Structures are given as C-alpha cells and as structure tokens.
Amino acid sequence: MEQKFDGTPKAELRLEGRRVTRSDVANDWGLMLRWVVKRDGKEIATVAARADATYEHPDKTPGHYEIELQTWKYVNYAKDAKGEFTVSKFVTISNVVKYKI
Amino acid sequence: MLNVGNVRMPVCRGHGLSRRSFLSAGTAGLAGLVLPDLLKLEASGAVKSKNGSKIRNCITIFLVGSPGQLDTWDMKPDAPENVRGKFKPIQTNVNGVRICEHFPLMARHMDQIALIRSLHHKTGATHENGQRWMMTGHDFNPDSVKPHVGSIISRVYGPKGDMPANVILPGKIGNTGAGDFHGQTAGYLGSAHEPFFLNADPARPDFKVGDLDVPPGESSSRLDNRKRLLEQVDELQRRTETRSTTQHDASYERAFRLLFSSEAKRAFAIDQEPEKVRDRYGRNTFGQSCLMARRLIESGVRYVTVNHFDTVFGLSCWDMHADGGGLNNTYLDYERHLCPQFDWAFTALIDDLKQSGLLEETVIAVLSEFGRTPQVNGRGGRDHYPAAWTNFLCGGNIKGGQVVGSTDKIGSRPNDSPIEPPQVIATIFKGMGIDLDTTMMPGPGERPIRLVEAEPIRQLFA
C-alpha cells in the first residue's frame, strides 16, 4: 500500500528573548521535526524539536540569528551513491523568527 | 471448570477433566460452535456471553521488516563502533532504562511499558518465519496452518455486536520475500474466523471501507431481498450441511451484518475525529491506522493488528539492509521517518486509551519478526538476526516500567531469561485476562487444545 501523508503541515513560532516556542503542528505528518538555526545567513545547527515545544539556542556568538521549524517530507526512499535522499527532504513549515546578539 | 470457547465444563476435583465433560467438550468442538451457533446459544441463555465479553482487548502493532535491537530498545553504547551503531541512548522515566534518542516521547511513557529484551527464535531468518512465530505462536506447518492470535480470540469469544472480532489494518502483509504465509489467516479455524482486512488507507482524504459500501447500482432494499433469497438457498443446503458450509454461512452473515451496521459505519468514520486528535497520531498511513485501531476497540472489536508497512521492498521501512537496491533502508530512514513516526503514533495511542479509561482494558503489543545483526554490515546497514531482539507490551494488566531479560555485550544472544515467541503470545492472552489453564479451543480435528503451548512471562504481572 502506498504510504499517504495527508495535508500540508504548518506551525507558528513565537520569540521571547532568545527563546523560541512553537505551536502544535497542524496537519502533522508525524515525522522528524527539527529547529534550524542560522547565523548571518549560514546554517549553524539543527536540533530535534519533537519532544519539546520550546528551544533556546545556547550559542551567544555575536551575529544575526534566524530560527525556523522543519519537518521531514517523505516522497520515496531513493538515495544517491553517498546514501543521501534524492527526492525526500526537509521542508520549512513555520515562520522565521529573528534576533540579534 | 474448563472453558471451551464460552462453554464451561465441569472438572473432577483433584483429577482434572472428567471423562464425561471431556466427551462433552469434544462434542462442543465437533459441533463447531461457529458464529451463528454461538449467537443461538447466547440467545437461548446457554452461553454466558457476559463471561466472554469480560476479557480485555488487544492492539498489536507489527513492525514489518524488524528494527535492529541495537538501534532502538537494547542499545550498547560501550560496544565497538561497528556494533553500537550511530544513535545514542537517552534516559527514560524509569531509572536505569535507556532507549534510543529518536524515541523521546516513548522515553516519557516507559513507566507504562514492559520491554522484553531477550526474545529470540531458532528457525530461519526470513521475515515470514518471524511473522508466523509472532502472530500465531507456532513454527510453520503447511499441513496445519496455524491461526492468527486474533482469529483464536474470534473463535473462542466471538464478536461483540455487529463488529468483527478480529481486524487487520490497513491491509494484509504482502511480499516480504519468502512466500505467502504470513500468519495473518484463521488457518484451520476456517473462514468464519478470518480477520477482517480494512484494505484501505485511513490517511487518505477519500478514505472509505470498500466492504461497507453498497455496490453501485444496488439499493439497500435490493440487497435485503438478495440476502433473503440467499437464506432460502442456505436452508436447502443445510439438509446436507458440513462444517465448511456452516462456516461459509457465518462468513456471509458477518459480511451482511457489517454492510448494514450503523455501528460499523460509525466506527470507520475517522473523519469525525477532531483535527487535533488526527494530528496527534500523525497524518500518515500508520498514524491514522493506530487511531482507527482505537476507534475499533471502542466499538467492540476485540483484536486489532496494525501492520506498520505491508512489504519490505521499495519503501522506507524497518528492514535496514542498506543494500543500495530494493532494500536500501539506512540510519537516515530510521532517524527521519521510522522512529519519529512510530514514537508519535504509539505514544498518542497510549495517551488516548488512557484518557478514555480503555488502556486498562486493552493490551498493546509491539511485535516484530527478529532482530538485526550485531555488527553493522559493510554498507552501513544490519541484516536479519533471530537470535536476539526486543519487543514490548503495555496496557491491560501488564506491569509497566520494567525490563525482561537482557542480552550480552553486543546484543547477540540472551544473557538471562531467554524468551521465545509463544511465551509472548501466552503473555498477551494473560494480559487480556484469559486463564490459559482453563480456557481451550478446538484444534485441528476439533480436539480441545490450549490456546498456546507456552506459559506467560510471570514477571510482567503484578
């Protein structure tokens, strides 16, 4: 049976200081959820986000920070020679919150 | 007293079963006690159906393909790198019990779960062998195909109301590599006790159960007429009735009852669930099947099996060979897809059943075919390994927050308390409240036999 993932997941992020809080995910596919942290436009960390709805990135290096929520989008399990997925991928499902240190 | 199905037989004090009651039991078995008989007996008050309905329910989640014990629930962080794998353990809410980091929600429910870490079987390392062991409690015998555990429950206790006693979601197990016998049939119990296969995906927005729709061009009244005609033909047939024709009758009766049952229609109407509840299980085939399992248990189904995948080929599943071809599941599939999907739906099911008071009335059994090789293979995967693996139980009268058995330093064999599949099946029965010493069923040739030839794991009961 083909595996069905219904709807389009969506969550809302809120920022208080450096602490980001997510809403429940609507149309949650139930796959991996992760926080993606960028500093000055460059990805510096990905952190599991399923277990807790809040996250505070510990790095206080000066710069412009952005945090967003992503989920795994399964299309198929095809992988390249290095073992990386070729079609399935992480997709952003939230707004982006920003702060500056 | 001895129970053959729901029929209670007297036993001689100090001498076990009396010859008279054994003969009576044999006769009861010979009579078949198929569904219509049972209903007639119930209607006449000859069978204490209330007694049967007191047993608890069971939801089995079957992880087709089989997760590796070292990457999930029996981690060995101190083992060499090519044994311990890529994942790290996390502490659960039970002191000293650690599981894989990719089950963070399950870790918070461990006080309700009993891990069996010393499970093993001694037959060949095919998926089908493991499926048959874990779903029938028996090794394979083509001359006497053993029934699925849910079919045994159907045979012994019958249905509650219009709902079938035994349902398998979302569909039957298909190709897993080595044959067509997956342990998900009624076997020698006959067609009256075949599982009801949903054969539809409850995650689809257009989800419908095919068997519950009046076919195009047919009206309900026309079907009613056809049923009456069929009953007349059946009446003629009964003059030369055999056991198989009786079972055929029961199958028809079950199908018609389901077709016209408002109870069944309500149970399968998953779109009536609040959106937040559907989200909490995960908007995917497995998650919505777990939610459907809860709805079916609420509606009177006694035994529900959720197959997490119906094949091991060409999709993300637990069968982590990393072979670069049709069996190319890797650690990435576990991390991004399989572990989170299971963790999310399984804990939703526990919470949901607990909230509605049904967890004490429902055993949840998470089963698989075997473990995976202690050493990571040259491609970064693990292959089939029936000498050691972990499954787990919760709900019913199972005492959670404990671990049965352990394995050696590399998870290659049981270190203590070795457990074999029939013991797990016996434990499920006991968890459902069935006394295996006094409850029997008609075996091949209708001779009364135990439901499973094993003793439950005593440690799991308070």
Describe this structure in words.
The complex is a heterodimer of chains A (101) and B (462). Chain A has strands spanning 13-16, 19-22, 33-39, 42-48, 54-56, 64-73, 89-92, 97-100. Chain A is an all-beta fold. Chain B has helices at residues 19-31, 35-44, 49-53, 81-84, 104-107, 127-136, 149-157, 220-237, 243-260, 262-268, 275-281, 285-298, 331-355, 421-431; strands at 2-4, 7-9, 11-12, 16-17, 57-63, 89-91, 98-100, 113-119, 166-169, 196-197, 303-308, 362-368, 371-372, 384-385, 389-395, 402-404, 406-407, 414-416, 439-442, 448-450. In chain B, the strands form 6 sheets. In chain B, strands 10-9-11-5-12-15-8-16 form an 8-stranded mixed sheet, sandwiched between helices. A 4-stranded mixed sheet of chain B has the order 2-1-19-20. In chain B, helix 12 (285-298) packs parallel to helix 13. The two termini of chain B are 25 Å apart. Chain A binds chain B through residues 1-7, 9, 24-33, 48, 50-51, 72, 74, 76-77, 79, 81, 83-85, 88, and chain B through 101, 104-105, 108, 170-171, 201, 203-205, 275-276, 279-288, 309-310, 314-316, 322, 324, 328-330, 332-333, 335-337, 340-341, 343-345, 380.
Key features?
heterodimer; A: 101 residues; three-stranded antiparallel sheet; B: 462 residues; alpha/beta; four-stranded mixed sheet; 14 helices
First-to-last CA distance of chain B:
25 Å
Molecular shape of chain B = globular
Helix tally of chain B equals 14
Largest sheet of chain A: 5 strands, antiparallel
Poorly predicted ranges of chain A (pLDDT <50, ≥5 residues)? Answer: none
Mean pLDDT of chain A: 96
The most extensive interface between chains reads: A-B, 31 and 43 residues
How much helical structure, as a percent, in the residues of chain B? 25-40%
Based on Cα principal axes, name the global outline of chain A.
globular
Distance between the ends of chain A: 50 Å
Say what oligomer this is: heterodimer
Strand content of chain A: 35-45%
Helix/sheet category of chain A: mainly beta
Determine the strand fraction of chain B and express it as a percent band: 15-25%
pLDDT < 50 stretches of chain B: 1-53
Q: Number of helical runs of chain A?
A: 0
Major beta sheet of chain B, specifics? 8 strands, mixed
